[in-house]
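Subject: for your reference before the review

Hello V.,

The reviewers asked for a structural picture of the protein, and I figured it would be easier to keep everything in one thread rather than splitting it across files. Below is the amino acid sequence we used in the manuscript, unchanged from the supplementary table.
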Amino acid sequence: MAEAVIHPLPADWRDFFALTKPRVMSLVIFTGLCGLLAAPVTIKPVLGFAAILCIAIGAGGAAALNMWWEADLDAGMKRTQSRPIPAGRMDPTAARDFGIGLSFLSVLLMGLAIGWLAASILALSIVYYAVIYTIWLKPRTPQNIVIGGGAGAFPPLIGWVAATGDITAMPILLFAIIFFWTPPHFWALALFVQSDYAKVGIPMMPVVAGEKSTRRQILFYAVLLLPLSALPWWIGGTGAIYGIAALILSAFFVFLAARVGLRQRSGPDDAMQPERQLFKYSILYLFVLFAALVADRWLLVQG
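And here is what came back from the structure prediction:
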């Protein structure tokens, strides 16, 4: 990697916190917590807190390594040029060491406090995002988001395994839901920031395949997500509360994706509202879907 030539100012805690991508981390923590709470066993609160803390630390470490590796790319994109390294507020080596330290700490703590199966999956998730996606997939293929979607799909699997100590069909389905949710979520964003990716040579789908193909694929994955999101209910892993919520949420997801998928290429002055609406809704979708999963489990226990 060719690091950006900068003269960093002294970094403060806010810059280190920014390296962890707190907005992304909030979704990681939430889905990991939901995976833990939806598991068919009750974990001690202290151990549950430790497991979620490890997921958060590991996600932060992977994000820091991502920002360190992509500092030169971030400097060339309007959306990311204010991040600590390209903005000159942090030395790249400090960011790298911070990311490595958080990553090792999270895996070690998870192994000692919870178990080595959960720790191994956490380690895999960090490597998947920081190495497989960031270094290998993202700069080489327009399928980077499809294959790399596994990076963000690990948290509920880790949370479930932390609570139960084993892997069953349910956590694999939770993994799959996020995996197939990622392409329409991220490509909706990529459609209205594609000029940034084109400028720095990242082969995102709209840049390489064009808007028309990207829009079709957004709709394809959204349609695929509809039955997939309901599978936990159909196999008896959840109750009707989750199942009905999944069908309603996913049906509206398909509706918004259809508005994007059937739309013609946007003009230079186009605000691209359907794409922005889909992107914003996709975040809400995942939060509400996993909240319904926990609510379903809680009502089952109470009943």
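For the response letter, the relevant points are probably these. The longest helix spans residues 273-302. The radius of gyration is 20 Å.

Happy to draft the paragraph if you're swamped.

O.
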